[in-house]
């Protein structure tokens, strides 16, 4: 399924967690997303790759209904979301979890309260139940016993995991991640990848992950969407992407591999003090 996929209809939209059809967005006069068509099957991980400013975050914001397209359709679990009222959209958002780039935790609240927030807002569960549920979610991301900690007392990786616990609070069917491992060291970034794979295996969650990390993309993806200046330059399985002969795809994969090799080289020089490694 390399390249741009065929137009879909609402009938087969039911088979997918997410269907995006010919999505076009403008900011002012600028066409930011240009005819983006993509599908994500239930329980699969879609990774969105592309250079800075190519429209990845804009694409995510459309999927969670924060932006209205200029044209095109978006189906979430078979329901077209671009024509919904805010109340209807809020119902759908309860099935979605989002991990924002900076984790977006409330600094004045404990982790327990941060995770409990969506449950307090959207459910009528008893306070004792909410406490237990938020502890379970913190446990799921490896933060057992941290309920009383404030975000400032945590490392970057722990904050990301706490953000993930909050995104999981309402047991979402679809999870969205914007650069989950940006700014983390490689070992902590790998832990986030492990968590994503764990959620996929254990709960068959559908996930959309925006990332710059190529190694991570190929590890976690069932399918990869590559954007360039708002256009789809590749959409397919990791093997399809590796086999792509599209010049921009080849360039992106090579450049990213070069940058990684250079980082390794710099790191080795730093720890050995040897410029010839
Ligand atoms: N609210 C906005 N108003 C006007 N232009 C915007 C707005 N949001 C994004 N843009 C522009 O749209 C383009 C795509 O932005 P977007 O944030 O989606 O890129 P991105 O692929 O997520 O980049 P990065 O990898 O740096 O996060 C950029 O040129 C950006 O300047
Ligand atoms: Mg972005």
TrEMBL record:
One of its GO terms (molecular function) is ATP binding. Keywords: ATP-binding, Nucleotide-binding, Transport. The keyword Nucleotide-binding applies. PROSITE patterns: ABC_TRANSPORTER_1 (PS00211), ABC_TRANSPORTER_2 (PS50893). The keyword ATP-binding applies. Transmembrane segments: none annotated. SMART domains: AAA. InterPro entries: AAA+_ATPase, ABC_transporter-like_ATP-bd, ABC_transporter-like_CS, P-loop_NTPase. This is ABC-type transport system. Residues 18-254 form the ABC transporter domain. It comes from the Bacteria. Pfam families: ABC_tran. It comes from Candidatus Moduliflexus flocculans.
């Amino acid at each position: 399924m390399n390249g741009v996929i065929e137009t879909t209809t609402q009938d087969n939209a039911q088979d997918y967690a997410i269907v995006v059809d010919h999505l076009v967005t403008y900011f002012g006069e600028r066409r930011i997303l240009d005819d983006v068509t993509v599908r994500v099957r239930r329980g699969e991980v879609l990774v969105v790759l592309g250079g800075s400013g190519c429209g990845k975050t804009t694409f995510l914001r459309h999927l969670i209904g924060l932006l209205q397209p200029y044209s095109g359709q978006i189906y979430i679990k078979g329901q077209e979301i671009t024509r919904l009222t805010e109340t209807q959209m809020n119902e759908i958002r309860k099935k979605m979890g989002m991990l924002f780039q900076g984790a977006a935790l409330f600094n004045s609240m404990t982790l327990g309260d941060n995770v409990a927030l969506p449950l307090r807002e959207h459910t009528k569960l008893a306070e004792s139940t909410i406490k237990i549920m938020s502890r379970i979610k913190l446990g799921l991301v490896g933060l057992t016993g941290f309920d009383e900690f404030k975000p400032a007392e945590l490392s970057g990786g722990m904050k990301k995991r706490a953000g993930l616990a909050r995104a999981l609070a309402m047991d979402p069917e679809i999870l969205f991640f914007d650069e989950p491992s940006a700014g983390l060291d490689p070992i902590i970034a790998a832990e986030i990848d492990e968590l994503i794979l764990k959620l996929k295996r254990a709960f068959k969650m559908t996930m959309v992950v925006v990332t710059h990390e190529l190694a991570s993309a190929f590890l976690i993806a069932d399918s990869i969407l590559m954007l360039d200046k708002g256009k789809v330059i590749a959409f397919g399985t990791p093997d399809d992407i590796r086999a792509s002969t599209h010049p921009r795809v080849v360039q992106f994969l090579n450049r990213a591999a070069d940058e990684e090799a250079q980082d390794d080289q710099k790191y080795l020089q730093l720890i050995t003090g040897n410029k010839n490694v």
